[in-house]
Amino acid sequence: MSQIITIKSRIKDGGNRSKQLRRMANSVNTVWNFCNEASCEMLKKYSKWLSYYDLSKLTSGSGKDLEINSQIVQQVCKEFATRRSQFKKKKLSWRVSRGSRRSLGWIPCTNQNVKLSEGYFKLSGKTYRFWEKRELPGEVKSISLNEDALGHWFINVREGTGRCN
To answer: How many separate domains does the chain show?
Structure first.
C-alpha cells in the first residue's frame, strides 16, 4: 500500500493570471453543469445512468470551444461520474459561475497537461509561478487548481511516496 501526500502551494497573483484561471474555472463549471443536465435527462427518458465513458463521448470536442484542454474536460466528466455514483443521486449541485453565490474555482488536471518545474507550472501554454513549500514530488498522481473565498488560487499536487509500513 502506498502513501499519498498532498502538497498545497499558493499561486502568485499578478497580471491576468487570476482572470485566466477564473475563465478556465467557468468553463469547468459549464462542463459539470452539462454532465449534470445530460445525465438527468437520460435518467428521465431511458432510465439509464450515464457512465464516465458516455459523458466523455458527449463532451468530446467541447474543449476547443470552451478554450480548455481536452484532458481537463475528461477529468471533470470522471469526477462527475464518481461523485454521482458515490452519493447515489440523480442530480448533483449546479456549479454557479457568476453572482454572489458563485462556486469557488476548481480546475482538475492530469500530470499529462500540467508541466511542473522549480516554482513554475505550465498549463494550456501559459506559465504560472507558485511558492514552493517543499521539493516537488517525483511521482505525481494528480493535480488540481483551487480558489479560496478571497480569490487566491492554489495548486494541489498529490504524490505517491512508495510503501507504507
So the answer is: 1
